[in-house]
Design goal:
By secondary structure, this protein is α+β, with helices and mostly antiparallel strands. The protein has helices at residues 2-23, 35-38, 76-90, 103-110, 146-157, 185-188, 229-248, 258-263, 301-311, and strands at 47-49, 54-57, 63-65, 115-117, 122-125, 131-133, 197-199, 204-207, 213-215, 250-252, 268-273, 278-281, 287-289, 297-299, 314-320. The protein folds into four domains: 26-64 and 78-93, no CATH class; 103-162, no CATH class; 176-248, no CATH class; 258-320, no CATH class. The strands form five sheets. A four-stranded antiparallel β-sheet has the order 13-12-11-15. Residues 272-296 form the Pacifastin domain. Pfam families: Pacifastin_I (PF05375). One of its GO terms (molecular function) is peptidase inhibitor activity.
């Protein structure tokens, strides 16, 4: 009886010890979840865990984070753990264009009927050769960065069971496109959406102002027939992508807040370009700027970041006071 008691106690202690070891498993700082990478690919307010610390992204790619000190992964098991965590976080971001995903190469390997995401669009391999895809436009991101690497990993992990034997139905992808009535620019751009870019199912459209739009090309696409189920599905997908992008878009004017920037400078006089006007900080920490009109833009955070880089917004000179 005493022996049975000792064995039972020993088993209980082992179970408790094992459970405690799982709880005490050290946290890891996953390199692919570095705030500098993640927060430059999303908007302010995005929150995630990098395996060690809780991170909240702020404006301009900056971040607020807890300050726990954790090691980077060293063993294969730890690297696999970080890969799973990183994939879960990066799957919440995007979509972005990944130039490392070559649709023709994928279709050559996988064959007709295989459907996949290239990071931006849905693609289907055709029996006649080549491929068809949706026509969403996405910001370009680093093809060697985490987002595109995880898109490639997800593509490689998609098994043959996801392939579909039948050919895509007419109107499903770009081999038979339609101009979707609900996405006509006369209807969409009637709302004040300056600079907003979207695809109407056939052409890329940019809203200008007062219901006006700029259309990328003049080609014509048919209107969907009422009894064409595939065309209806095509337009529903186009509307879903439109709404998704619209929900993520915000009104932006300048890339830098001149007054806030100058108020924060204690020992330096700063000259900078805010994306619209040239400014410099005065000794009283106020800002003096040229007076060009800065029309608002209704665009996604990624498009805004790309715009600011394109126009060269940033510090022009930095002179310390004597």
């Amino acid at each position: 009886m005493q022996l049975l008691f000792l064995i039972t106690v020993g088993l209980l202690c082992t179970a408790v010890s094992s459970s405690q070891a799982e709880k005490d498993e050290p946290a890891l700082r996953c390199p692919d979840l570095d705030p500098g990478l993640v927060c430059n690919a999303t908007e302010s307010g995005f929150s995630y865990n990098d395996g060690c610390n809780t991170v909240t992204c702020n404006d301009g790619g900056l971040a607020s984070t807890t300050l726990l000190a954790c090691p980077e992964p060293s063993s294969r098991g730890e690297r696999n753990l970080c890969e799973s965590l990183s994939r879960a976080v990066w799957s919440r971001l995007g979509p972005f264009t990944c130039y490392n995903i070559d649709a023709d190469s994928v279709c050559t390997r996988r064959g007709a009927g295989f459907a996949f995401s290239d990071g931006c669009n849905r693609v289907r391999c055709l029996a006649a050769g080549g491929h068809a895809r949706t026509r969403m436009e996405c910001p370009v991101t680093d093809p060697t960065g985490p987002y595109c690497r995880f898109v490639a990993l997800a593509l490689e992990s998609e098994g043959s069971e996801k392939q579909q034997s039948e050919e895509p139905r007419a109107g499903a992808l770009e081999e038979d496109e339609f101009e979707c009535p609900a996405l006509r620019h006369s209807r969409i751009c009637e709302e004040f959406l300056p600079g907003f870019q979207y695809n109407d199912g056939c052409r890329n459209v940019t809203c200008v102002s007062d219901g006006l739009a700029r259309v990328a090309d003049s080609r014509e696409c048919p209107q969907p027939e009422p009894d064409n189920e595939a065309a209806a599905l095509y337009c529903r997908e186009a509307q879903r992508r439109f709404q998704e992008k619209k929900d993520r878009s915000r009104f932006y004017t300048t890339c830098l807040d001149a007054d806030s920037l100058c108020r924060g400078r204690r020992t330096a006089e700063l000259a900078f370009f805010d994306g619209c006007n040239r400014c410099f900080c005065l000794p009283d920490r106020s800002a003096a700027c040229t007076r060009a009109a800065c029309p608002p833009m209704f665009i996604t955070p990624e498009e805004f970041t790309a715009h600011c880089r394109r126009v060269g917004a940033g510090v022009l000179s930095h002179r310390r006071r004597k």
